[in-house]
Amino acid sequence: MLSGPGFSAIAALMVLGVLLDWWWGEVRRWHPLVGFGNLAMALERRLNGEVPLRFMRGALAWMLAVVPLTALAALLIWALAVPLAQAAAHALMLYFCLGLRSLRDHNLPIADALARHDLPSARRLTSYIVSRDTTSASEVELTRASAESLLENGNDAVFGTLFWFMVAGGPGAVLFRMANTLDAMWGYRTPRFLQFGCAAARIDDALNFIPARLTALSYVLLAPGLRGKRRAWQCWRVQAPAWDSPNAGPTMSSGAGALGVQLGGAATYHGELEYRPMLGDGPPATGADIGRAWQLVARTTALWLAIACATAATMEYLHA
């Protein structure tokens, strides 16, 4: 998909997919990813059984969930045959997999609630987007949760999806988002999922390795001024290795450095307080920084689309 004049079509469809996501947002009913999540829950209930076989059962569940649907997406593209219909299918697959507007719609209301000093509403809204406990969270803790979610999910819901769309079109985006969804559902270090979700977590790490570092690099490039870029780069290089996740570390540390705020720190998950490394450099993030994090994600999206279109134009010129 990346070579030859065909990349021009991929770049155009990337723009179209992002515009569709921006115009329409999430599908309110019958969203494919919601249906996939229901399938994943059914498979997990069925296969997450005997402890000695949990890893193998988890790997089998991953294959049963992802492989047939990815093959079906590729088969649909092939069966349509007509180029215009194929292009429409690619764009729609990308649209269903993207979550740019969803990130805005779920996080900016948190910033608004914090600006009104409405902690109960902010806690409730934040609980919708993170797995940590928010029942008694302070403004700083809620801001950290939202900003970290924006920076990390900017990669998961937008940039990783765009990367795999560039590699393999609509089926590539579908594969990535399903793998990422399974990691979000099964990739917990709890007695129930430690072994069963191991395969899902490792596969997601592999698929996300390059996109996460391109995302981190983008955050560095878009940091304000030379000083901000140096700070974002330094935070990435020094802080990311201390983070448990090999992909969340680069994206969140570089993003926090680009924003010039402090993220990370203690958070409660599944009733247990976890002391996570600090991220970024500067004062603790406040409610207004949620909007700044969203702007960083939005500008990074524009940067990726601009690079894709410029690359397509250059390749068209060279092949003329």
Question: Biggest β-sheet: count, sense, barrel?
Answer: 2 strands, antiparallel
Kindly report how far apart the N and C termini lie: 19 Å
- Mean of residue pLDDT? 93
Number of strands: 2
Proportion of residues in β-strands: 5-15%
Helix fraction bin: over 70%
Strand order of the largest sheet: 1-2
Family: Belongs to the CobD/CbiB family.
GO molecular function: ABC-type vitamin B12 transporter activity; threonine-phosphate decarboxylase activity
Function: Converts cobyric acid to cobinamide by the addition of aminopropanol on the F carboxylic group.
Protein name: Cobalamin biosynthesis protein CobD
Could you walk me through the main structural features you see in this protein, from its secondary elements to its overall organization?
- Pathway: Cofactor biosynthesis; adenosylcobalamin biosynthesis.
- By secondary structure, the chain is mainly α.
- The protein has one domain (6-319).
- The chain has helices at 6-24, 32-47, 54-80, 83-97, 100-115, 119-127, 139-186, 198-221, 225-239, 248-259, 288-319; strands at 262-269, 272-280.
- It has a two-stranded antiparallel ribbon with strand order 1-2.
- A hairpin with a 2-residue loop joins strand 1 and strand 2 (272-280).
- The model is unreliable at 1-5 (pLDDT under 50).
Short synopsis of the structure:
With 320 residues, the chain is mostly helical. It has helices spanning 6-24, 32-47, 54-80, 83-97, 100-115, 119-127, 139-186, 198-221, 225-239, 248-259, 288-319, and strands at residues 262-269, 272-280.
